[in-house]
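Possible regression after last week's pipeline update?

I re-ran a chain I had predicted before the update to compare outputs. Posting the input and the new output here so someone can diff against the archived version. Not blocking, just want to make sure nothing changed silently.
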Amino acid sequence: MARRIDVTGAGGVRLAAWEFGDPPKDGPNAPAPAPGVLLLHGLMGRASHWASTARWLSERRRAVALDQRGHGQSEKPPQAAYTREAYVEDAEAALEQLGLGPAVVIGHAMGALTGWQLAAKRPDLVSGLVICDMRASALGAASQREWAEWFRSWPLSFATLADVRKWFGEDDPWVERPSPARGAFYAEVMHESPDGWRPVFDPQQMLRSRETWVYDAHWEELAQVRCPTLVLRGLDGELGRAEAQEMVRVLPRGQYAEVADAGHLVHYDRPEAWRAAVEPFVDSVLGV
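New output (post-update):
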């Protein structure tokens, strides 16, 4: 089971965090707190996407997943609030307010970028980092236009969650191959409204969040990450092998892993292979 803990992010934004496993005990005879792990989802994601990962992490560690601003059950401020600095400060605040740091930060896509920007800014808070399927190179204006067109192609609402799973898992014209995992991923970010199922996020706010990183490269910040870092990709994901290996070369303490038969949503596509790649790394960093 997971329990919700609210934290206060940059600018006073209320953020929902979810702690998996037993909460830490207080008192003079309490055992030493378990090593911390912070899980950061990608764009349009939510903390619950980490549930299966957090369950095995929480067996020996304190695992917390954050609904980032504009996502899940966290507050959704106006568009001007979706800066890279705000996302990084939110993660920083979560680690400090929950007493998690120094922690291993596991990030997917946008969450991975937040993780390495935080590690560069606050090395005292990040003991290790997992970067899952996030590129360090600039994606450019064409990529942002494609995303805007993709959002416009969505049905205005979905009659049922089965329709959500089918559209994103099978019918989405922007995706090359069917993926039941992708359908399940998007079903989890929908809520029921009077006219059907709609996303819990505002697509325009997602575009605003994305435009704060797609026009820039992030190699310089990556090179500033001093902690052990695992760069992980799915063979059919968005991060190519050559770029991933260059990221490992740039990182002072970088390692590389890839998961076969997985796309961008590695932890959803191949949960067992994902665990096999990530758990030994986390164990080596935390010494458990």
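Follow-up from reviewer: compared with the archived run. The chain has two domains: 2-138+216-286, 141-207. Marking as no regression found.
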